[in-house]
Amino acid sequence: METSLNKYISESGFCSRREADRYIEDARVTINGELAWKGSRVKPGDKVLVDGEPLPKRKAPVYLMLNKPKGVTCTTDLKDRSNIIDYIGYKQRIFPIGRLDKLSEGLIFLTNDGDIVNKILRSGNNHEKEYIVTTDEPFGLDFVKAMREGVRIQGGKTKPCFVKQEGPNRFRIILTQGLNRQIRRMCEALGHRVSSLKRIRIMNITLAGLAPGKWRLFTPAEIEAIQAMLKDSSKTDDGEGMGE
Question: SMART domains per the record (predicted)?
Fold first, then answer.
């Protein structure tokens, strides 16, 4: 049975489907010795190589969470000295689900399960991410109302969302979208700059008990709960991810 090349690579645990697309676009993937392209299909018996090396044999899935500190970059590029992979130092190959800006902090998941990545990232599945945000200057009710109703950024308008003011320049926001630097861009469009941003929840998982800079594996109960929430989620990529 044929399968798409990016799915074949992600299901090996080598990287996410999006990262697989980048490997393909960068001409780093071959099928049976021939350069692959986006949209290539893999048949049983095909030999797929990335950078001339075979894909790893699929290992047991790993799910862990990190309370990311500022200064750590959500990339698997080991040339970046601040990369999240070296920071955690996990013994198996893993990759982040979504991203947090280098200057942002808080909860992020990492895994070797390419299948779960797409289900969590796809905004159409409406999986919640909750943040606490501080701006450089105080804001009023007009700012809160505009954030709730949607802000025009990147040539489109953000989806309506929950926003609650918690101080003169502090608010709580819950997103189901994940556009690149979404919260920062929304604030900038309304004349404010983000001075601190912390993600405190993804779906049913919170930062409770996880100190800044520390990571831990999911408990069996957490894995079971996440799988139940993802049961009816689509894996189709709609171009949005779990950004901020």
Answer: S4
Query: Would you tell me how many other CB atoms lie within 10 Å of the CB of residue 82?
Result: 12
Q: Are residues 38 and 65 in the same domain?
A: no
Nearest to 14 by CA among 65, 45, 43, 48: 48
- Domain range for 223: 59-244
Catalytic residue positions?
101
- In this structure, the answer to whether residues 11 and 100 fall within a common structural domain is no
Q: Where does 62-133 have alpha helices with state H? A: 84-88, 114-121
Quickly count helices (H) and strands (E) in the chain. Answer: 7, 17
The tens digit of pLDDT for each residue in 159-190 reads: 999 999 999 999 999 998 888 899 999 999 99
End-to-end CA distance of the chain: 37
Same domain, 166 and 182: yes
The amino acid at residue 45 is: G
- The model carries a pTM of 0.77
